[in-house]
Amino acid sequence: MIYLDNAATTFPKPECVYDKVNTIQRTIAVNVGRGGYSVASEAMHIVDETRVLMATFVGAVSPECVVFTPSATIAANEIIYGLEWDSYKNVYITPFEHNAIARPLNTISERYGVKVRLLPFDSQTQSIDMVALEQTFALNPPDYVFINHVSNVTGAIIPIRTIAEKAKEYSSVVIVDGSQSIGILPLNLKETDIDFLIFAGHKNLYSSWGIGGFIANTNYKIHPVLAGGTGSDSLNLKMSNTYPNGFELGSPNIIAIASLNESLKWLNKVGINCIEEKKNSLTQKLKCGLLEAGATVYLPSGDAKHTSVVSFNIPGYEPNEVGSILNEDFDIAVRAGFHCAPYIHELIGTLNTHGTVRVSVGYFNTEADIDALIAAVTDIMGDQI
User: Fold this and answer.
1) What CATH number should be reported for the domain holding residue 311?
2) Taking residues 111-135, what's their average pLDDT?
3) Domains in the chain, number
4) According to the 3-state scheme, what is the secondary structure of the chain?
5) What pTM, to 2 d.p., does this model score?
6) Are residues 295 and 243 in the same domain?
């Protein structure tokens, strides 16, 4: 199988991650923070070390700002439902948001009567219209601004620093979904106005399923929305609102956390720049090949930057049909449909086409993989003649 669905989850993982998971599962897969015995202490050390590695990786103020959750979706929900809400709140989102953000906000909108507004992006360049943004913010000052750092449909890179800086002129709380960016784009939280950064371990961080989280980069305190055992202060029935204790409940997934520990070390060894350079080279080859084959490719135009996610369609075919043909006839795995992104398809005009075929390149892909996909698309296009 040629795997080109890395925006969903990176696959395969580095061999060292598989080895680490196997070792931890067999040796110290015990309940972290619940025992004073030596193996539990070893497990706790891994959690603490991973927190330091993650904080260093994104330039967080301190390791205590790193909160581990079972997924980025859970992290997004903890943040969203932990914010202060009333009908007067003004909320802004990009048209690139994933349903991990969009659906909780829709629930909040229905529950409190909150207005959720789209930030102004150009449909061709997929870039922010700063003049329209300033006018919109002046008319309806933002309370909360949600920014998807990288689109999981078009790969467009959103200028989070620019938008966050403008939002902070109104003392807005800024939440960035870095699920598609952390691991390929460098970020130093100390140099940004971001309040909360969401991450997903199983994507570009190359760890296993079961680990995600958020990093608090702010004095703003969200309310705990989940409650349960934390392994400390057990006689107190109230949940703490401190980071990370008040937001890490239940038994920590030491196996998944250990995988993130190892994948972060691997990323530091290989280097983000090296990974980005390789993926950019493959993506450039992919774009040129798809365009030459005659596919409709949904790329940001002009000076807008994008990562290794490319969406396309083949005239006369539904995206799901193309995905099935690639799978059944060529053993190539891609994603077809709307990709859990409800707003972007109106922006790029793919509502009526039932979405797109999405190709997402990973570090372990090769030029031969891209050549095989391009040949397959060319073959499908030839069947139309």
Assistant:
1) 3.90.1150.10
2) 95
3) 2
4) CEECECCCCCCCCCHHHHHHHHHHHHHCCCCCCCCCCHHHHHHHHHHHHHHHHHHHHHCCCCHHHEEEECCHHHHHHHHHHHCCCCCCCEEEECCCCCHHHHHHHHHHHHHHCCEEEECCECCCCCCECHHHHHHHHHHCCCCEEEEECECCCCCEECCHHHHHHHHHCCCCEEEEECCCCECCECCCHHHCCCCEEEEECCCCCCCCCCCEEEEECCCCCCCCCCCCCCCCCCCCCCCCCCCCHHHCCCCCCHHHHHHHHHHHHHHHHHCHHHHHHHHHHHHHHHHHHHHHHCCEECCCCCCCCECCEEEEECCCCCHHHHHHHHHHHHCEECEEECCCCCCHHHHHCCCCCCCEEEEECCCCCCHHHHHHHHHHHHHHHHCCC
5) 0.96
6) no
